[in-house]
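Researcher: Here's a chain I'd like modeled. Treat it as a single chain, no partners, no ligands.
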Amino acid sequence: MSSTSPALTALAGEFAALRPQLVSVAYRLTGTMADAEDAVQESWLRLSGLDEPRRAAIEDRKGWLTTVVSRICLDRLRSAAVRRERYVGSWLPEPVVAPLGSPLSEDPLAVAVRDDGMRMAAMVVLDKLNPEQRVAFVLHHAFAVPFGEIAGILGCTPDAARQHGSRGRRAVADADPPPRAAPAEQQRLIERFLAAVLAGDVRAVAEVLHPDVVFVGDGGGKAKTALRSIAGVDKLFRLFQGLLRLYDPAALTAFAPVLVNGDIGLHLPARPASGGYQALDSHVTCFVVHDGRIDAIYDVANPDKLTTLTHQTPS
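Model: Modeled as a single isolated chain. Structure tokens:
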């Protein structure tokens, strides 16, 4: 069949309409944009590569594509589990970054991250599930895929698939990721936090941070950030005061507000060493707000996870 045939053109249009959900499924399952896009593209190649009789035999193309994408992602998750054993420092999901205040993008991934289940706090919890639990939980609880179909993806019985989903649901419930806070509240707290840190006002910092606040950095051994999680107001205050001594304060304040998985965050551009200060890597930082305070700070500096960052701050 010619690539310009009416049938294939119509199929491409149908696939484009389904692409946002497929990307949403793939990103929630893998936590990386590259894997998500690869899985969705592979599903298109498999669908478009079928001859007309086999394609016509697919009664539910949305379900068929979701199954294909999920199987590809399951393979990626299983191989990723091995790779993460050798990963340097903490692992965070790859952030989906967009300029703040720009018109809403209709890019499939930009559309997908508007969903509350794709905020960074929720994605971090999903990373704690094993591959089978993650697939079963995401497909059933986020996309209402029956456990009978999930069993076919996992290669297990429906009862086993249901058990994987239940364990995933309990783990997510126990972690209790906070819901997305209103943008105005996020922005107000982030501004107060930054002002307090720059002023060296530990009392003001304590008023903004939750007592059990945690800072998680992901440099992957390729960029500088906290190697291990840091918990507690005092430790975080000392961390940021130390950063102000190591790096040019002008560079640390050259951040730009951005959307990180639909929440307000910061992009700090890279700066070379100068004036006795160390070189600064590019960072994307996301803040989790809970009960009127900042509950967690996720800092992604691994350049492999910032390759699609298009928003640039002023130099």
